[in-house]
């Protein structure tokens, strides 16, 4: 009895553990599914669209008149939907057009090859067909090594090889080769048309729009890092230099966002290739300069590589003396903050398709901070005996200078994109200009008090000056020039 009881308990324990394992598996899958749906609801819609397309083409089997017209060839419509329907409109159109044109061309060549093979007699027909298959398959496969064909027509070349081989080989034992080719071509075209219509007219996902938003998002990620770099590196609170959103990020995830930019090349190139297949939609017309987006994305990645090196300076085991870091702290924070603001304005301009003049203001401010840093280094370096100690901070400063140059190149490339696509020009407000003027003047030099015991010079520009001492006679140069008198 004890043995039977222990066996029953063991069996119950296995069933209980199995139930808990199954329950945990279901809960885990459900949690991941809900997360994917919340991250991008378009994924759920895409799944429903694929189900709708497959259900529609399956009617070819269920309705006898359609099945009698196409027979077993209706399976090609189902296969076409499975392999052609992609997430974006551009990818679906690209695959659909590639499949349709490749099937048409391969079917025509297959029928022609079959006709020529029959002229060689019953014994020579298999040999001639084999030669045709060898030549066309080898030539088509070699064409896939060309970059232009690989990028846009690779799928079509594969379908061409498959269709030509099937039509030519199956036609050897088929009496009605033309009927066979017509059935396959018709069902493939119908399946492709169903995919393209549903993809375009039911909640479309445009590859061009995704590429446009991706470029802006990458710039925002770099801007997040630059705006928060100063406070993190110098380990102090600089609320005036960071945006409110950055100040609330206690998890410091904004310092890691740039990492996704480093590996965005493949995604950008894929979206650009798909976008070229898409029709006009929104602000995107035919012959939209998608290559310019790739150029901007390449410059953004170059900037992210320098930011990656700058990120290493934050957690480096070797740090510069606090006295030296305090000397360069203001200029470095100004450089990173203003360059981050410039990138954020560029991202906002790309999203809204506008050209903002405030970008030039932020870039000018970062350059002025670079000049201040140069002056500080010239006056501070001779006082430091050990140059190895200040090298980490000097490296961070040099990286900031390189980043500012990269941002200038990004701004020029975005302006070129704006000119090509006719971005709306938004001039900077007068208030912004008035705020920047005194800062620019203060960066240019130092005003010293006038020594009354020494001779001095008064300069007048375009009219009498209120600062001129009484009794001083100033002569004005014709043409609005400046004149001087000395005491």
From TrEMBL:
It comes from the Eukaryota. It is a multi-pass membrane protein. The chain crosses the membrane at residues 44-63, 75-94, 101-121, 127-146, 153-173, 185-207. GO terms for biological process: malate transport; monoatomic ion transmembrane transport. Keywords: Ion channel, Ion transport, Membrane, Transmembrane, Transmembrane helix, Transport. Signal peptide: none annotated. It is found in: Membrane. Residues 478-487 have a biased composition (Gly residues). Residues 461-487 are annotated as: Disordered. GO terms for cellular component: membrane. Belongs to the aromatic acid exporter (TC 2.A.85) family. This is Aluminum-activated malate transporter. It comes from Stephania cephalantha.
